[in-house]
């Protein structure tokens, strides 16, 4: 078994106010995940909270990350009490997916 580790990450990667402060102004939006993945050890995929994602999306996200990088996902909103509440339900899990 490998040693446990703590990763510091962010909850998503598409944030317009970050343009010019974190992301370079000339960075295309399609390159934001790759840029953020080189700065953090983990990123939450917010899209999983809102619905199923296509196999193409999963593949694109995986290609943008370095080996050993981790994604975190949340259960869909409809799987949580409150149906659409941005607060995770008590006992809900966050899944970790290695790129």
In this structure, how is the largest beta sheet organized? Answer: 4 strands, mixed
Mean pLDDT across residues: 82
Helix content class? 10-25%
The spatial strand order of the largest sheet comes to: 1-2-3-4
> Gyration radius, to the nearest Å?
14 Å
Strand proportion, as a percent range, falls in 5-15%
Separation, N- and C-terminal Cα atoms: 19 Å
Tag the structure with descriptive keywords:
globular; alpha/beta; 99 residues
Short description:
With 99 residues, the protein is an alpha/beta fold.
Could you characterize the architecture of this molecule?
- The protein contains three helices and four strands, in the order E-H-E-H-H-E-E.
- The protein has helices spanning 32-37, 47-50, 55-64; strands at residues 9-10, 42-45, 70-73, 95-98.
- The protein has a four-stranded mixed β-sheet.
- Helix 1 (32-37) links the parallel strand 1 (9-10) and strand 2 (42-45).
- The two termini are 19 Å apart.
Annotate the secondary structure layout.
Elements: E1 9-10, H1 32-37, E2 42-45, H2 47-50, H3 55-64, E3 70-73, E4 95-98
């Amino acid at each position: 078994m490998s040693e446990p580790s703590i990763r510091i990450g962010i909850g998503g990667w598409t944030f317009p106010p970050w343009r010019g402060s974190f992301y370079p102004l000339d960075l295309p939006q399609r390159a934001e995940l790759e840029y953020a993945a080189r700065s953090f050890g983990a990123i939450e995929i917010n899209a999983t909270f809102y619905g199923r994602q296509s196999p193409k999306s999963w593949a694109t996200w995986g290609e943008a990350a370095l080996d050993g990088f981790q994604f975190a996902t949340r259960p869909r909103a409809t799987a949580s009490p409150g149906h659409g509440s941005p607060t995770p339900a008590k006992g809900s899990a966050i899944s970790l997916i290695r790129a």
